[in-house]
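Retry 2 of 3 after timeout on previous attempt. Resubmitting structure tokens to design endpoint.
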């Protein structure tokens, strides 16, 4: 068994041949992040309600322009969602990933249909800073655990998306419900070195009914060393503040901005105040 200390001293972990065990102490200086989400279908930026593809609305034919607007007010990272890839089980919108990575300094977290080592490598080659994986983690947990070890826990994120009515994990663009319990699913990978989780209440996504604060608090209580990005339901800047005060490290949002409930000026002011 080997003792490992990360370069930034955020985490100390024990690594064995089969798993990674977290120690009971943790050092964190992470600032709260706001992470705009850009959802893609056929190269266009779209929005959905509760992940329902029948509610698709095209926001823009130029996702790069949207990303550049976010960069211009101080955003550091975007969450780029390849909905085509999520449905077909293989990423498709590499050209948009390449454009945003090449023409901005944004860190791009890419998700949608990432299944194999080849997919992961290709995402990084096209400029992704990190990748977020849902379906492959649910269908082949050992492979996803190997991704964490192979590419590093700062590069591989878990998407844990659920309906709080039953806390079952949903995958394939939320089209498929599994029998996996949310907390057991996270715990399996947490014990194997997972650091970053994006958690969504799919019933709140795209409807601006407010984040599920109780859900995110329970995730934090159970897994205090996780970096949690909360997704779904943001209505305005006050929701960012409440999530930050709850201890959440990041908020992934979209519709509130695209519908004009949050402006670029609002985001810039929030970022500038830290």
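Retry 2 succeeded. Sequence:
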């Amino acid at each position: 068994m080997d003792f490992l200390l990360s370069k930034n001293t955020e985490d100390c972990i024990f690594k064995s041949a089969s798993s990674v065990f977290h120690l009971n102490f943790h050092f964190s200086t992470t600032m709260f992040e706001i992470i705009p989400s850009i959802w893609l279908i056929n190269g266009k930026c779209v929005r959905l309600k509760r992940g329902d593809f029948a509610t698709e609305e095209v926001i823009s034919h130029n996702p790069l322009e949207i990303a550049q607007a976010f960069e211009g007010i101080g955003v550091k990272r975007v969450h780029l969602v390849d909905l085509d890839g999520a449905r077909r089980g293989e990423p498709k919108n590499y050209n948009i990933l390449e454009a945003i990575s090449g023409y901005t300094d944004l860190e791009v977290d890419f998700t949608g249909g990432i299944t194999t080592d080849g997919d992961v490598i290709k995402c990084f080659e096209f400029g992704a800073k990190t990748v977020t994986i849902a379906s492959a983690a649910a269908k082949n947990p050992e492979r996803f655990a190997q991704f964490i070890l192979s590419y590093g826990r700062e590069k591989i994120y878990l998407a844990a998306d659920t309906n709080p009515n039953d806390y079952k994990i949903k995958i394939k663009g939320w089209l498929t419900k599994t029998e996996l319990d949310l907390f057991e699913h996270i715990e399996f990978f947490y014990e194997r070195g997972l650091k970053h989780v994006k958690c969504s209440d799919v019933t709140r996504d795209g409807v601006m009914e407010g984040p599920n604060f109780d859900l995110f608090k329970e995730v934090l209580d159970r897994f205090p060393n996780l970096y949690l990005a909360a997704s779904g339901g943001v209505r305005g800047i006050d929701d960012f503040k409440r999530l930050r005060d709850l201890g959440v490290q990041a908020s992934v949002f979209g519709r509130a901005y695209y519908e004009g409930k949050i402006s670029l000026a609002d985001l810039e002011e929030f970022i500038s105040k830290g």
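Attempt log closed. The chain has one domain: 31-272.
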